Hints:
By secondary structure, the chain is α/β, with parallel strands linked by helices.
Amino acid sequence: xxxxxxxxxxxxxxxxxxxxxxxxxxxxxxxxxxxxxxxxxxxxxxxxxxxxxxxxxxxxxxxxxxxxxxxxxxxxxxxxxxxxxxxxxxxxxxxxxxxxxxxxxxxxxxxxxxxxxxxxxxxxxxxxxxxxxxxxxxxxxxxxxxxxxxxxxxxxxxxxxxxxxxxxxxxxxxxxxxxxxxxxxxxxxxxxxxxxxxxxxxxxxxxxxxxxxxxxxxxxxxxxxxxxxxxxxxxxxxxxxxxxxxxxxxxxxxxxxxxxxxxxxxxxxxxxxxxxxxxxxxxxxxxxxxxxxxxxxxxxxxxxxxxxxxxxxxxxxxxxxxxxxxxxxx
Length: 330
Ligand code: TXA
Ligand code: MG
């Protein structure tokens, strides 16, 4: 295990970017902000570094990682873009969209990072700190969300610290992230497929493609068959406290994750209450989601009751994460 490392925490800035690039080049593990969630970066071409990364996260080794690159040009060196992939990259990069593509012939991303698949997930992040680190480092950086496997994704440096201190080399603190849920993942197969809803709403992608996105052939929450994206494993986002969805009241001993301004019966006796968005703003709710789940998880409640959240726009990703949080962990 990496446990016992001295994890440095640097405020975002030129010195931190230089230290991050140097650490990555030396095979180090560096957590940094992206616009979606904090990522835990490693040199995508360095299998030893990637092995340390899986170890630090406690991540099952069959779970492939996203290669983050500085721009489309760098993406072209690792993935084969068809016309639709090119259209999506030009429309949404830099931004919260990941494309799964066939690997390029000379793809430098280590097999360990792609879990042996002949496809590679690529993303060009928009956050200025992520971009500065990618530019200074100069190559692809794999970066899963910077949490222990099975925990919720981190939206602040403090979340990263509480999961990974002592296990990684450096945390670059760039404050709270903007989007709050992970990137949307589209598989660029014959028919483009929505592999994971996320920070870029489906409708915007479909508008550029001029067609509807396919659904994955295997229901990731079903118990039949292998999940298409192993990261969609049902337990991926589970807090320790039981989560009860679509609550219309608050039961004895429960904490409440609210949405909107309706007062539920029993709310006065709730262990704790946090409101994703009193004004029913789904962007605000997404940004608050993981932080609030973590905070309520720490309150020792019998369960976290969650009010219904609409399914349109970013609501699809929010409901997807909530559903995973509600599935019991083994
Ligand atoms: O917003 C994000 O995407 C964040 C930030 C840090 O960039 N990263 C992130 O990475 O969410 P991670 O590792 O937590 O999730 C990556 C997802 C997993 O569900 C994984 O299975 C899927 O991407 N994935 C990676 N490569 C794939 C591939 N070749 N085919 C299908 N799914 C893939
Ligand atoms: Mg993750």
